[in-house]
Structures are given as structure tokens and as C-alpha cells.
Write a structure and sequence with these properties.
Length: 70
């Protein structure tokens, strides 16, 4: 299930990078459109790097698998 827009807006407003990482990662995994999924995954990866989130390697692997990262 793709996170609700309000959940993302609340996390942005709070500056909660860990929550943003999780929400965008969930959105990437739930999307049926690979371009949208990679868009979400890119955001998740940026936030994962910012907060040193443990899912950063999984997100990176997703981007590599879909040709969005070398």
C-alpha cells in the first residue's frame, strides 16, 4: 500500500528523515509503475543517507536492479 499523502506531508513538516525514508521505501515497493517506484526509491535513498538508515543498502540495491544507479 502506498503511504497516504498526509503521512508524507506530516513527516516532511516534522523533518523526520527516518520516517520519510520508510514511507518512500514503502511507496517504491508498492508501486506497479517502475518509473514511479524508482522515483520513490530515490527519495527513500536520499533520506536513508541523511539519517544513516539501516535500509539504505536494500534501497540502493533496488535502484541498481532497475538501472537507476551504477
Amino acid at each position: 500500500m502506498i503511504p497516504a499523502d498526509q503521512d508524507l506531508l506530516n513527516a516532511h513538516a516534522a523533518g523526520d528523515t527516518a520516517r520519510l525514508c520508510v514511507l518512500y521505501h514503502q511507496a517504491a515497493l508498492a508501486s506497479d509503475d517502475i518509473d514511479a517506484a524508482c522515483f520513490y526509491a530515490t527519495h527513500a535513498y536520499v533520506f536513508a543517507l541523511e539519517c544513516d538508515h539501516p535500509s539504505r543498502s536494500k534501497i540502493y540495491a533496488f535502484l541498481v536492479k532497475h538501472g537507476r544507479e551504477e
